[in-house]
Amino acid sequence: MDPKMLFCLPEGDALFNPLNTMFIQMACILVFSQFFYLFLKPCGQAGPVAQILAGIVLSLLTIIRKVHEFFLQKDSASYYIFFSFLLRTGFMFLIGLEIDLDFMKRNLKNSIVITLCSLVSSGIIWLPFLWFLINFIQIKDDFLTFYLAFLVTLSNTAAPVVIRSIIDWKLHTSEIGRLAISCGLFIEISNIFLYTVVVSFISGTMTGDIFLYSFATGVIILINRFLASWLPKRNPKEKYLSKAETLAFIILILIIALTIESSNLNSTVFVFFIGLMFPREGKTYRTLINRLSYPIHEFVLPVYFGYIGFRFSVNSLTKRHYLVLGMTVALSLLGKLLGVLCACSFLKIPRKYWLFLSTILSVKGHVGLVLLDSNLVYKKWFTPIVHDMFVASLVIMTLFSGIMTSLLLRTQEKSFAHKNTSLEFFDTKEELRVLTCVYGVRHARGSISLVSALSGCSPGVSPSPFTPYLMHLIPLPTKRKTELLYHELEEDAGNSNGGDDEFGTNEGLEINDSIDSFTKDRNIMIRQVKLVAQMENMHEEICNATEDLRVSIVLLPFHKHQRIDGKTTNDGEAFRHMNRKVLKQAQCSIGIFVDRNITGFHQLHGSDSVQHVVALFFGGPDDREALSLCKWLTNNSQIHLTVIQFVADDSKIEKLVGDAVTKENNEVFLEIVSKDQTEDETDRIFLEEFYNRFVTTGQVGFIEKRVSNGLQTLTILREIGEMYSLFVVGKNRGDCPMTSGMNDWEECPELGPVGDFLASSNMDVNSSVLVVQRHRHSFDSFVDE
């Protein structure tokens, strides 16, 4: 390539060279895509649809001679190929970094079955149509490569388009959304692998290159693992790696990708596996995610999708070719539909998701175009007519599938919405998604200990699906309308937002270190989220996050903390008001964690120490929710759980010990009670099921206490206050004789009478406390279904 062109130097009187015009073209795609997205977003369309339309509009503008000469200059194809390679390398590495490995492992069978059914059904449907195409286009040689290119290109699923669309629809945290992403990746990787193997077999020269580059990719993965652990040690006080250190990883990936592409092989799979095998913990991973996510999602992917539309051209097609084009699109959609429907039926996936998976997995992308344009020496049938027909069918299918999927989501919005199901109806085999909110490292350490307890670590027992999130809450300081200097302000006013030192990066650095220690010890990844907002609006952002992340329970820090001398200090009424607002508005269960990290609950990572936890059961939906959360504690060998049931003296409830019947396989039988059943009957059924599963098997201790009033309850709580490091209790039972009179000295009504007593600094209780409130409408919605 001419160096003058490479460095944007004009030739003669030319003001623009292909590199300059390419950047102008990218800018036009970004502007047009934003314009289309403003109109299409209210209709539920995803970003890729708007960006592909922007590329099509730019392509149609090239009909004008001046525009054509400007955008499609001599040697411009070389620039497009190189920059499309850079874009593809960047986002495939990021996809490998961001993919949910735990979910992929759990749903490996589902992804493989859907992938195989999709490929087989498409292959069978294309066989009779192939004979028609061969005669129609008059192909005389290389039938195998023609069928392979047709099958791989038109049965492929563009994983980046699927991922971007799923994120725009806010389904990336749902089961069906993550399954669609996994299937899209499996289908694309399988197609690339199939194409590469067949072409290498035909050529007879690529087999050795494949093994060589696979070995080189393994070496790069090992080098990345070494650098990921070594580089953070050079500057332990820095929150992120330096830009030069980040660039070292990018250069390594580009070198291996360029080398692979120079051998006429596709580097997509190799780059994806480099990202997939990158260490998921520590400063290095956070740095790459932080510095790659925004530019790739906001600039690289829109240009990539726009380039798909820009390739759209029907200049060489005649009217008779349009019929074949229509048949190609219809058979491609039909092959994907039949394959996915058969797979979903075999896997017993709910029927409401069948059509969604079929349409979203029909989108195509740039990888299909790359495979179509590569290894042309083995494609004697390749002509401009074939090329335009392939490209047009890819673009039409992507637009049609994207629009159909968005319309399907709009018509069946309730089917894909997050179900506010209570933990009471969850089994420990289902995924538990927890959002813990912290203001600083003091809250983070206690929350991480609680997350560690919920994650489970019993030897010989497969861990339950568990996805924890940690949200760092950073209140924005309010503007001070005063002429006083900072040191002249009152102490409460100066510290109302947690202090200036908490607003900086030191808190974030210590939180990161605590998370890294937990991840290294438990091998469980905590996903971090940062929330910066005004204190009066922070509850809205938290409630929105609970819906977007589809969490089962959100854990909030108590507005008081324990000092070194054991006394408690109020952090500010603003934090208390924020907790109250979340309790009223959150669309999931809520827990307020009173962390006494000095005298209370703290799980030491790497230690064999046993923590004694007690769940207090007075009855009611909140207590059932609290006890349901404790089911995940039973999987932890370092937690000894005891349930204390408080029963009124005048109650005629029989003991559960005599009536206990162990159910087959210790599975919880979830009986949906009718609305007219009494609360006491619901409590009895729930507690009996819990007893049969966990107490009779020796996993949980059980104690019954009979009391007649709140004073006797307080006496018992004082007696057991030093026996347990963590109390788990529901917020409110309503009118309950066992807690009568306890409201007289209540300080924090948001904790309920029992939680308020346990959290009070005036009582002789030094344990940590977790107060749980169930989402008020979760039970009603579950029964209605």
From TrEMBL:
<keyword id="KW-0813">Transport</keyword>
<dbReference type="Pfam" id="PF00999">
    <property type="entry name" value="Na_H_Exchanger"/>
</dbReference>
<keyword id="KW-0472">Membrane</keyword>
<comment type="similarity">
    <text>Belongs to the monovalent cation:proton antiporter 2 (CPA2) transporter (TC 2.A.37) family. CHX (TC 2.A.37.4) subfamily.</text>
</comment>
<feature type="domain" description="Cation/H+ exchanger transmembrane">
    <location>
        <begin position="35"/>
        <end position="408"/>
    </location>
</feature>
<keyword id="KW-0406">Ion transport</keyword>
<feature type="transmembrane region" description="Helical">
    <location>
        <begin position="111"/>
        <end position="134"/>
    </location>
</feature>
<dbReference type="Pfam" id="PF23259">
    <property type="entry name" value="CHX17_C"/>
</dbReference>
<feature type="transmembrane region" description="Helical">
    <location>
        <begin position="210"/>
        <end position="228"/>
    </location>
</feature>
<feature type="transmembrane region" description="Helical">
    <location>
        <begin position="47"/>
        <end position="65"/>
    </location>
</feature>
<feature type="transmembrane region" description="Helical">
    <location>
        <begin position="20"/>
        <end position="40"/>
    </location>
</feature>
<keyword id="KW-0630">Potassium</keyword>
<feature type="transmembrane region" description="Helical">
    <location>
        <begin position="292"/>
        <end position="310"/>
    </location>
</feature>
<feature type="transmembrane region" description="Helical">
    <location>
        <begin position="354"/>
        <end position="378"/>
    </location>
</feature>
<dbReference type="InterPro" id="IPR057291">
    <property type="entry name" value="CHX17_2nd"/>
</dbReference>
<feature type="domain" description="Cation/H(+) antiporter C-terminal">
    <location>
        <begin position="613"/>
        <end position="775"/>
    </location>
</feature>
<dbReference type="Pfam" id="PF23256">
    <property type="entry name" value="CHX17_2nd"/>
</dbReference>
<dbReference type="InterPro" id="IPR050794">
    <property type="entry name" value="CPA2_transporter"/>
</dbReference>
<feature type="transmembrane region" description="Helical">
    <location>
        <begin position="146"/>
        <end position="167"/>
    </location>
</feature>
<feature type="transmembrane region" description="Helical">
    <location>
        <begin position="179"/>
        <end position="204"/>
    </location>
</feature>
<feature type="domain" description="Cation/H(+) antiporter central">
    <location>
        <begin position="515"/>
        <end position="604"/>
    </location>
</feature>
<dbReference type="InterPro" id="IPR057290">
    <property type="entry name" value="CHX17_C"/>
</dbReference>
<feature type="transmembrane region" description="Helical">
    <location>
        <begin position="322"/>
        <end position="347"/>
    </location>
</feature>
<feature type="transmembrane region" description="Helical">
    <location>
        <begin position="240"/>
        <end position="258"/>
    </location>
</feature>
<keyword id="KW-1133">Transmembrane helix</keyword>
<keyword id="KW-0812">Transmembrane</keyword>
<protein>
    <submittedName>
        <fullName>Cation/H(+) antiporter 1-like</fullName>
    </submittedName>
</protein>
<dbReference type="InterPro" id="IPR006153">
    <property type="entry name" value="Cation/H_exchanger_TM"/>
</dbReference>
<feature type="transmembrane region" description="Helical">
    <location>
        <begin position="77"/>
        <end position="99"/>
    </location>
</feature>
<dbReference type="InterPro" id="IPR038770">
    <property type="entry name" value="Na+/solute_symporter_sf"/>
</dbReference>
<keyword id="KW-0633">Potassium transport</keyword>
<feature type="transmembrane region" description="Helical">
    <location>
        <begin position="390"/>
        <end position="409"/>
    </location>
</feature>
